[in-house]
Design goal:
This protein has 425 residues and is an alpha+beta fold. Helix 1 runs parallel beside helix 5 and helix 4 crosses helix 5.
């Protein structure tokens, strides 16, 4: 079992960087790769693992994990900084290889099948385990000090990687169950149904915990796609607005394009395809990335209290696309102003509901932003997948500071396909 760690941290000194990522843990579980190799017992190939005990075949199951961690670093001075983790991605993979002698007996094949079933049973729940392990690290702030802050950060991330790896390995009790299965079957020689031996081995080593009663509620993210057909697609653009020297904001180049496309939907879940084409702050393209995600139609209301809010409230309070502007912002807000407005996208006039909220910064954590405030304006519509039509996030600070007195990030619906938004009257 191995873990490959990619550190993606953005250094923030005064002016925020253009990297905009919603805090999240992303788990990608690849399909299990299953293969069988046959060998001559009298002349086995060199790469065949050694036989164990009285077995005539060999089962090999590799549970692989590939993790990447991203976030921002706020540097106070040359020897002190704080790093905040805002993105963790873990890719899981299972490779199964069964080595069998040529023309194997039926009992040998059936015994190997039991080993495969046990491995796939564990892999079925691997996504839940990996997410449960990774989520506590999300939002964690790391204090950094020393002459070489880069090496200090690297050591801190290495420690997090080690903790994730050890915990994942500790909760995947595959070897214990496989050994128990071999003991129950006497390595395939005992007359016992393979299915019964697999069930008993799992029961002995990985008992299923009692599940408390849960109250399931509709997922706002699922409802945002419920009334659209597969193929519906929206593309969002993000850009910074900066002062032109006269206290007037002017738009900069597009810094990111994100596309959301509906692949499939049923009563249980929605399957979405995401693609992102980021650029640096000068508009130069960076490597794109793509991934697929499935969102359940319902979820446990006790798991995430924030998820109990409406889709509109989620988009407002989760700082969707806010990036560095939201660092240090307190979640509690004052009254939210609301209204109605019409926005035109590619010739289509879309009736929207807008909301505006003001957020204060926690000066005890981020003294750089003392007396600064963040104003988020949000325009939403049920006629658009995801619900988002436009969003602006503007930070205002007193004059005479190191940071800019005004800066704004805008996320807006650039294009849509596969549906026609309801036009306003």
């Amino acid at each position: 079992m191995w873990l490959w760690l990619i550190v993606m941290f953005t250094l923030v000194v005064g002016v925020p960087s253009v990297q905009s990522e919603q805090p999240q843990v992303e788990i990608v579980k690849l399909p299990a790769h299953i293969g069988t190799r046959y060998f001559d017992p009298k002349n086995p190939p060199r790469d065949r693992p050694p036989l164990t005990g009285p077995e005539e075949g060999v089962y090999v199951g590799d549970f692989l994990s590939n993790a990447s961690v991203g976030g921002q670093v706020m540097q106070a001075n040359a020897t002190h900084a704080k790093a905040r983790i805002n993105r963790i991605k873990v890719t899981l993979q299972l490779n199964i290889t069964t080595w069998l002698p040529k023309d194997p007996e039926k009992r040998i094949v059936e015994h190997a099948e039991g080993h495969r079933q046990i491995a796939e049973y564990y892999y079925r729940n691997a996504e839940v385990i990996a997410r449960r392990i990774a989520e506590p690290f999300l939002g964690k702030t790391i204090e950094l000090s020393g002459a070489d802050l880069r090496n200090t950060l690297s050591a801190a991330i290495d420690k997090i990687a080690e903790e994730i790896t050890n915990e994942y390995k500790g909760q995947m009790l595959v070897k214990t169950t496989q050994d128990r299965y071999d003991a129950l079957t006497e390595h395939g020689r005992k007359e016992i149904l393979v299915s019964d031996a697999v069930v008993q081995a799992l029961k002995d080593t990985y008992p299923e915990p009692a599940k408390p009663a849960v109250v399931l509620v509709d997922s706002p993210e699922y409802l945002a796609w419920k009334n659209f057909a597969p193929g519906a697609k929206v593309v969002y653009a993000a850009r910074y607005w900066n002062l032109n020297g006269q206290n007037h904001l002017v738009p900069g180049p597009i810094t990111s394009l994100k596309a959301y496309q509906l692949r499939g939907i049923n009563v249980e879940s929605v399957r979405l395809w995401f693609s992102q084409a980021p650029t640096d702050r000068y508009g130069r393209p960076m490597p794109p990335n793509e991934w697929e995600e499935t969102i359940a139609a319902q979820y446990d209301s006790k798991v995430d209290l924030l998820a109990n809010q409406s889709r509109s409230a989620q988009l407002l309070t989760l700082f969707h696309q806010a990036g560095n502007l939201a660092i240090g912002v307190q979640l509690n807000t004052g009254p939210i102003e609301t209204g109605e407005a019409t926005i035109e996208v590619n010739g289509a006039r879309i009736a929207t509901h807008w909301e505006s909220a003001t957020y204060e910064y926690d000066a005890s954590v981020w003294p750089t932003f003392k007396n600064c405030r963040l104003v988020i304006n949000l325009w939403t519509s049920n006629a658009v997948p995801t619900g988002l039509v436009r969003k602006t996030e503007e930070r205002t600070c007193p004059l005479g500071r190191d940071q800019l007195p005004r800066v704004m990030v805008e996320t807006y619906l650039q294009s849509f396909e596969g549906f026609t938004p309801v036009a306003s009257r």
